[in-house]
Each structure stands twice: as C-alpha cells, then as structure tokens.
Design brief:
Layout lengths: L1 E8 L5 H7 L3 H12 L4 E8 L3 E8 L2 H16 L3 H4 L4 E4 L1 H12 L10 H15 L5 H20 L9 H10 L11 E4 L3 H12 L5 E4 L3 H10 L3 E2 L5 H5 L4 E4 L10 H9 L8 E5 L16 E5 H7 L6 H52 L5 H30 L5 H10 L25 H5 L9
Parallel strand pairs: 5-6, 5-8, 6-7, 8-9, 9-10
Antiparallel strand pairs: 1-3, 1-4, 2-3
C-alpha cells in the first residue's frame, strides 16, 4: 500500500471548478464507499471545504490509484478527467504526508495559519471512520496530522496571521463600510459551522443588530439565541436583506440562495442613502448568483476575490517556524512507517527459523527414537535458544536501520537473502511501506511519466 493525495484547492482551481468538485455532507459516505470499492483504493478520507477538495488514500499502485481517484472526482464534477487535469495536484508517499501535515498546520490555507481547517480535517476523519473507509494507515496519518495542527498553534504565534477565513473576509468588508463594522446591521445566511463562526465573529466585532436565517428554522433559532441575535424565516429573506449592510452567506445549498431576483427586490426596498450592501459569499458551491456582482449598490466578496487579495499573507517568521515543526513531524511519521514496514519481514524470518528448527527436531526424532521425552525437550529448548540468540542482534539492528531514510531497502534485502515470502496483508492489519518519492506535479504530468522500478 502507498499513500496518495489527489485534490484541488484555491491555489490551483477557480471557484467554479471547486464548486463542481465539492461533495455535500449528505453525499460524503456514498462517495467514500465509491472510492474504497475501486480496485486500487483500500482506504480513503475525503476533505471538502470552501477552499479545497482532497482525497487522502491508501492505494496498491500509484497509477492505478490515481486513475481510480480521478475517475471519482471527474464523475463528481460532471466533467471528463482531462478537463480537471490542470487543476488537480498529486502528492505521493513522503510528499503526501508533508502535504497533509501542512494543511493541518494552516500553511496551505488561503489565510496562512487559520485554525478552522483543523476542525474541517477532524470532521473529514470522523466521516471516514463512520463510513469505515479509514484503515490503519489513514487512522495513524489523520491522528498525527491533527496533533501537528494543534502543536503548530500551541507552540508558535501563527495565530497572529492565522485569523479565520471569516475574520479575513469581514476585514475586507469593513473597507467598504468606512472601515468599521461596529453598529452595522448584519445577517448570516446559514447555520452550519461557518455560519456559527460568522455570527460569533460579527458579534465580537460589535456588528448589530444581528439576524440569522437558515432553511432549517430550528438551527437558526438556536444559533441566534446563543448570541442575542434574531432568527427570521428563509421566506422573509428579501425583507431582511433590505434592512442590513452586510451579509455573510455560508450555506450548503447546491444552488445560489442570494439570486439576482432576490437581491434586486431587496435593493428596491432599501434606503438609497444607506451605502453599499456588502455580500460575503463563503460557500462552495456559491450562495450568491454571479450576476449579483453587477448590480449597482452591491459589493460581492467571494472566495476568488479573497484568494487574490490575501495571496501574500503576513507572519513569515511564524510560518517558517511552523514549517520546521511540520518537517520534523513528517520525518518522525516516515520513520515509524519504515520501521513498521520491516516488521512483517522480521516475522517471516523468525517463522522460517522456527520451521527449520521444527523440521530438524522431527528428523532427529526419526533418527534417534531411543531419546526419551525429557532429553528430546531439552534438545529442542537448546536449539531454539541458539537460533533466537543468533537472530536477536540482526533483527534489532535491521529495525533500527529501517527507521532511517532509505531504510525500506533493508526489508527487501532480508527477503532476498533468505528467500522470504511475505504475504500481502490488509492495510488495516499492517502499515504500508514508504518509497522516498516527493512527486507532486499536476495530474497529467505525473501519469505520463513511465514508472521506474515497478508500479508506484
């Protein structure tokens, strides 16, 4: 088994492509089931957020696994794989571990250091656990990734730059409202995790009065009560829009909620001297219909615009420190994988030794039937002790060597020297080996490279 990451993010794909790839919560389990049912994919975790859609997978072969995953992503997007080629990135083995840890630490986020991605990774891991699509490799990877993310925030000041996407978006919005949101009437459309974070952030910034609306009215009421806000039915969306200055849209709807018609009617009932209506679209797929941005008196800030404005984030020193943490943690994880890889080979070597000893003891019993049971047992114990002592130091040493970079060669040498047949086991029962390869080129650049040294 190998570790493979295939995905697209705000760095490689426009919002329209991320919208196509996005997997709604209701479809996560079904998509995970489709992935692990494919020939080359044994384990899968699917991360689908407003800024990224990524598959973390344990695969039996690089090219086969890549083809399987891309087929599912293409089906999800309703497009041929070739249409996604320029937007997908691929990370394999060591590079895959590095990528996942960087994501968890917030280094790959639109706003460097933002902590929300850690919760999103945790949610993705829980979904995979519930769908039984994560085996031992991905369980270990995700647990360590979450630990790395927590360590990055606990041991550095990355949080200074790592404001949430919501905070960053509201900072941009404030620029259209005289630089201050205090006392500005605001509304949040959506009562999920992003909606709750938006209400909390608006409340902290002093915006108000606050209004919450959601297709599920009960969730809107509960969220509003938590922050002293008001809940309004979705049916009253037009009237509510006409009374606010800022709207954060963060629903899981598959179609735009703030349509051209809805916003046009809201503007008609709005005082002409109120200033612009600022719409923050933090949803994927988009909550704001594209044509809304062309309406007079409306400012739309979406994920695409945020990516352009926040491309050069602050706190380079803090990011460098987090990078050092990630680098060290990646090597620790790879050492663990390399050490785990040699275990089946060591077990096979000891099994071979036991078989040889047993065969010789049977031969002795046939040739010397005059030996009594006590003497035969003493001979058996002596031979076993000799074999175990001979094997002890080499097996201890090979485990130590296997944990070092390039250590996977020692298991292969043992198998070659002793002609050991190590059975292919389930990834749930053993940890796959790691090949030192940090390939992370775009999809077609990778698959067009002929494999070297066998299937990768």
């Amino acid at each position: 088994m190998k570790l493979l990451v295939v995905g697209a993010s705000h760095r490689t794909a426009p919002i329209a492509t991320l919208e196509q790839l996005a997997v709604a919560p209701a479809d996560l389990t079904r998509t995970l089931d489709r992935l692990v049912a494919l020939p080359y994919v044994s384990e899968a975790v699917l991360v689908s957020t407003c800024n990224r859609v990524e598959v973390y997978a344990a695969v039996s072969g690089f090219h086969g696994g890549l083809g399987d995953i891309c087929a599912v992503l293409a089906e999800q997007a309703g497009a041929p794989p070739a249409a996604l080629a320029n937007h997908l990135y691929v990370h394999f083995d060591a590079a895959a571990v590095d990528h996942v840890f960087r994501v968890a630490a917030g280094l790959d986020s639109m706003v460097v250091g933002e902590a929300q991605i850690l919760g999103q990774l945790r949610d993705a891991y829980h979904w995979a656990t519930g769908a039984d699509s994560a085996g031992r490799l991905l369980h270990e990877l995700m647990q360590q990734a979450l630990r790395v993310g927590k360590r990055a925030h606990a041991e550095t000041n990355i949080d200074r730059a790592g404001q949430s996407v919501v905070t960053a978006a509201l900072d941009l919005a404030a620029g259209h409202l005289d630089g201050d949101l205090s006392g500005r009437p605001a509304m949040v459309v959506g009562a999920g995790a992003m909606g709750a974070l938006s209400v909390a952030t608006l409340s902290r910034l002093g915006a108000g009065p606050l209004t919450v609306t959601n297709r599920g009215a009960d969730r809107a009421v509960r969220l509003a009560e938590s922050y002293g806000a008001s809940a309004v039915p979705m049916a009253e969306l037009v009237d509510a829009l006409s009374t606010v200055d800022i709207v954060v849209a963060a629903t899981a709807a598959t179609e735009p909620v703030l349509t051209l018609d809805v916003v046009t009617r809201a503007l008609a009932g709005r005082d002409a001297d109120r200033g612009p209506l600022v719409l923050l679209d933090l949803a994927v797929p988009r909550d704001v219909e594209p044509g809304v941005a062309g309406l007079p008196g409306v400012e739309v800030i979406d994920i695409d615009r945020m990516a352009a404005l926040l491309a050069d984030g602050p706190a380079a020193a803090d990011a460098a420190e987090v990078t050092r943490i990630v680098t060290a943690e990646v090597e620790t994880f790879l050492s663990w994988l390399r050490g785990a890889d040699v275990a089946p080979t060591v077990a096979a070597l000891r099994g071979r030794a036991d078989d040889v000893v047993s065969a010789e003891l049977r031969r002795l019993a046939q040739r010397r039937p005059d030996l009594d049971d006590d003497l035969r047992a003493e001979v058996a114990r002596t031979v076993h002790r000799v074999v175990q002592r001979l094997l002890h130091q080499p097996t201890v040493r090979v485990r130590q060597l296997a944990a070092e970079p390039g250590g996977d060669q020692y298991a292969a040498l043992l198998r070659e020297l002793f002609d050991l047949q190590v059975p292919q086991t389930s990834p749930v029962d053993t940890v796959p080996d790691v090949v030192e390869n940090a390939d992370s080129r775009p999809f077609f650049d990778v698959v067009d490279v002929p494999p070297t040294g066998g299937e990768r």
